[in-house]
């Protein structure tokens, strides 16, 4: 704003100098020039001073790091806060220190990531064509902004040279270590970990931190996807039949165990009756009507039976 005002005043001064050469406007122009010299020059000086002050003060916002370039050379990094630089000599390049996201997806225009990208095409170890969707969260290492400017460039430069290059390269390379069916099942989590372990050191070497990487989805061709679904259904059917066979086997074993228990019980009972035959008489008494009374008589005695109780109503 200050620079714009100075330019306006300078243009006005040039216009007045031109008007002084015209006899018709020379008087008014001379008066205006005198007034400009009296009041304009101090004003211009004040504006120049304000311009120098504004160009020498830099405020670095939170979540940002500033790198000073002096005549093209990297001088150092500035933390958030108020800083003073040489006006018109130093230049400050800003880098975000907050976490950013990169995402490769089917529809990048609908992505909410800071850096959306198209989905990654790859091949599995058994030659199947797949598409890999990846989301990664990353940030600059503390104190590495100056190194990044010196070796990689701006924020857009390091995202293109490191983030995008390494993720897309590993996204095509890692699936070749897995069969398509493995990636269709829970083994995809292993592939995600392999991706992270391969990319994180490369980020580290370039002043970045890979905070998290998620293998969002793996898309197969329609034909192969149907084959995988049919195979999965067949495996589930086999598992169901195996469970049925196991249950039938358990029921048979339970019956065998029960029969063996009954046989053992009969053997024990036979042994007990052989040893003590009076048990048969006792069980006979227990099965008779409860209103019939019995007693143990001496050997050779004839038992007497009261027949009157048979006709009585209970």
Characteristics:
314 residues; alpha+beta; Tetrahydropterin Synthase, Chain A; five-stranded mixed beta sheet; three-stranded antiparallel beta sheet; 21% strand
Number of helices: 9
State the major sheet. Answer: 5 strands, mixed
Total strand segments: 10
Low-confidence stretches: none
Helix amount: 40-55%
What is shown here, in short?
The protein is 53% helix and 21% strand. It is of the alpha+beta class and 314 residues long.
Task: Please characterize this protein's 3D structure.
This protein has 314 residues and is an alpha+beta fold. The chain has four domains: 55 residues, no CATH class; 39 residues, no CATH class; 121 residues, Band 7 domain (Tetrahydropterin Synthase, Chain A), CATH 3.30.479; 47 residues. It is 53% helix and 21% strand. It contains nine helices and ten strands. Strands 6, 7, 8, 9 and 10 form a five-stranded mixed sheet that branches. The chain has a three-stranded antiparallel sheet with strand order 3-2-5, covered by helices on one side. A hairpin with a 5-residue loop joins β8 and β9. α1 packs antiparallel against α2 and α4 runs antiparallel to α6. The model has no long low-confidence stretch (mean pLDDT 78).
Topology, please?
Layout: H1 2-19, H2 26-56, E1 57-60, E2 64-70, E3 73-78, E4 81-84, E5 90-96, E6 100-105, E7 115-118, E8 120-123, E9 129-140, H3 145-151, H4 155-173, H5 180-184, H6 188-205, E10 208-220, H7 222-275, H8 278-287, H9 308-311
Parallel strand pairs: 6-7
Antiparallel strand pairs: 1-4, 2-3, 2-5, 6-9, 8-9, 9-10
């Amino acid at each position: 704003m200050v620079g714009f005002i100075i330019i306006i005043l300078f243009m006005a001064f040039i216009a007045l100098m031109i008007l002084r050469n015209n006899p018709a406007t020379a008087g008014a122009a001379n008066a205006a020039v005198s007034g400009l010299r009296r009041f304009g020059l101090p004003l211009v000086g004040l504006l120049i001073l304000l311009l120098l002050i504004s160009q020498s003060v830099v405020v670095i916002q939170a979540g940002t790091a500033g790198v000073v370039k002096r005549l093209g050379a990297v001088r150092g990094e500035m933390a958030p806060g108020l800083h003073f630089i040489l006006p018109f000599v130093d230049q400050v390049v800003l880098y975000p220190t907050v976490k950013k996201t990169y995402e490769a997806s089917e529809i990048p225009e609908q992505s909410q990531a800071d850096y959306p990208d198209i989905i990654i095409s790859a091949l599995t170890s058994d030659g199947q064509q797949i598409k890999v969707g990846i989301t990664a969260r990353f940030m600059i290492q503390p104190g590495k902004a100056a190194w990044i400017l010196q070796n990689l460039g701006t924020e857009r430069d390091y995202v293109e040279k490191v983030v995008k290059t390494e993720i897309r390269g590993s996204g095509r390379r890692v699936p070749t270590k897995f069969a398509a069916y493995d990636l269709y099942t829970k083994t995809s989590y292993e592939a995600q970990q392999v991706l992270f372990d391969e990319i994180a050191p490369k980020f580290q070497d370039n002043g970045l931190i890979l905070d998290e990487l998620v293998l969002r989805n793996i898309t197969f061709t329609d034909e192969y996807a149907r084959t995988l679904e049919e195979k999965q259904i067949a495996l589930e059917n086999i598992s169901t039949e195996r469970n049925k066979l196991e249950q039938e086997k358990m029921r048979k074993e339970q019956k065998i165990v029960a029969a063996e228990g009954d046989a053992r019980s009969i053997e024990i009972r036979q042994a007990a009756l052989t040893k003590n035959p009076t048990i048969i008489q006792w069980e006979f008494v227990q099965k008779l009507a409860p209103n019939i009374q019995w007693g143990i008589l001496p050997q050779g005695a004839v038992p007497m039976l009261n027949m009157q109780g048979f006709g009585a109503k209970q």
